[in-house]
Amino acid sequence: MTTARITIDRDFRVGDVPRRIFGSFVEHMGRCVYTGIYEPGHPQADERGFRRDVLELVKEMGPTIVRYPGGNFVSGYNWEDGVGPVDQRPTRIDGAWHTIETNAFGLHEFVDWAREADVEVMEAINLGTRGVDAARALVEYANHPGGTAWSDMRRANGAEDPFDIKVWCLGNELDGPWQIGHKTPDEYGRLAQEAGKAMKLVDPSIELVAVGSSNTGMPTFGAWEHAVLNHAYDEVDYISLHAYYQEHDGDAKSFLATATDMDYFIESVISTADAVAAQRKTKKRINLSFDEWNVWYQRGLDTDDQPHNVERSWRTHPRLIEDEYNVTDAVVVGTFLNSLLRHGDRVTIANQAQLVNVIAPIRSEEGGPAWRQSIFWPFARMSQLARGSILRTAVTSDKVDTAKYGDADVVDVSATWDEENGTVAFFLANRGLDERCDVSVKLGGFTASGISRAEVLTIPDGGTRLTTNTQDAQPVGLTPLEGVTADGSTLSLQLPALSWAVVVVDVTRA
Ligand code: AHR
């Protein structure tokens, strides 16, 4: 048995929970849109072709904001192709994913779907093959009330009221050589500045996300953010971060500690952004939009479900990167969400990539069922229960010795205080692969009066750490966490080996 001691205090608040950190991502990639959220003719589809079974799961999972339409896809996309009468929309080649795009689904359909799913739209523009003019036209089309050519076109296409989209991404991963329209930091910084300026001239209320680094291993990481913000600091509100992680060569210990890299990434980008602020002598702060993150098992390019297998014929909605997630992945995803939440004073938008089928918490089959993957659960519970203020957490615990990140705390945690409902929620991961962990929490400034929820995700009976959910059986999920006690200002619990848990304590002020 390992041990961990956690301390919180009512007065040690990081900030309010930014609800947009529970975001997700829908890209025109693989089967995320087609046969994911949208499948006319499916027995569960509504009259617009939206899959009701998928919508139900989306609502249960609780994303707050959804990025659209890409991803790499957006860097070769003409948004005009996806509006107007469906039978007149062009069929195009999507070079990013080697796919045929029919454009049957576009901006209006996504806005309608988002309303149905009760999520905010986060729209990405194409700064790969296009530029300032297409960007400002799209803002006018989407957000201007009417009486101009672009806004009247929206109205003629069936949407009388503006879409009022607030958050816009100025392109996608343009630091990456794989990106259509890849740019140097200065080329991109100037383009983002000018596109952003023109977009805000159309609608000054919008918030803009500049492209940051595609991961911490990019050769330009750090220099990219610095150069881009040097150009576009006054025009933009956020800088983006993307990161995907996976277990390598069975090294589960390092994999379970990868939130360490997420912490490092976030803290480095905050430092860089604030260094630019200091140089500019401005009080304005640039926040972080971690708008792609997840576990992704990136296999060889010759694997059939990998996008760049150019031997394949061009297809519509091919099966691409439909990773099946296991127990270990779910625990790791819980630690990613903890990392984002702990930095919630500066990471104020985050999007798990993606929502359905493509490296996703929700899976669906064409003409068949939809189901929850293991990684669905930490997201769903945290989106539901992380409310109010984020509390600082101090951890003194046994360590896990990892090859990649050195010593890591065996327990990873984040905590929030919902003052209105008188509860403190803890989100905990036990990284120990073999041992239970005895956890005691000192509740500074609070008196506990009961436990209103205690649930755990761990290896199911008869399973292993690699057990996954399939369309036939979903053994990985939440079960009650027994034996949680709260006595005055101490909370005590035991976490099973390799587990993720949520505990909600009823509190009053001490
Ligand atoms: O989410 C899958 C892809 O990963 C996105 O299209 C791209 O932005 C990233 O490289």
Automatic annotation (TrEMBL):
<dbReference type="InterPro" id="IPR055235">
    <property type="entry name" value="ASD1_cat"/>
</dbReference>
<feature type="domain" description="Alpha-L-arabinofuranosidase C-terminal">
    <location>
        <begin position="291"/>
        <end position="499"/>
    </location>
</feature>
<dbReference type="Pfam" id="PF06964">
    <property type="entry name" value="Alpha-L-AF_C"/>
</dbReference>
<dbReference type="GO" id="GO:0046556">
    <property type="term" value="F:alpha-L-arabinofuranosidase activity"/>
</dbReference>
<keyword id="KW-0378">Hydrolase</keyword>
<dbReference type="InterPro" id="IPR010720">
    <property type="entry name" value="Alpha-L-AF_C"/>
</dbReference>
<dbReference type="Pfam" id="PF22848">
    <property type="entry name" value="ASD1_dom"/>
</dbReference>
<dbReference type="GO" id="GO:0000272">
    <property type="term" value="P:polysaccharide catabolic process"/>
</dbReference>
<keyword id="KW-0119">Carbohydrate metabolism</keyword>
<comment type="similarity">
    <text>Belongs to the glycosyl hydrolase 51 family.</text>
</comment>
<dbReference type="GO" id="GO:0046373">
    <property type="term" value="P:L-arabinose metabolic process"/>
</dbReference>
<comment type="subunit">
    <text>Homohexamer; trimer of dimers.</text>
</comment>
<dbReference type="InterPro" id="IPR013780">
    <property type="entry name" value="Glyco_hydro_b"/>
</dbReference>
<keyword id="KW-0326">Glycosidase</keyword>
<dbReference type="InterPro" id="IPR017853">
    <property type="entry name" value="GH"/>
</dbReference>
<protein>
    <recommendedName>
        <fullName>non-reducing end alpha-L-arabinofuranosidase</fullName>
        <ecNumber>3.2.1.55</ecNumber>
    </recommendedName>
</protein>
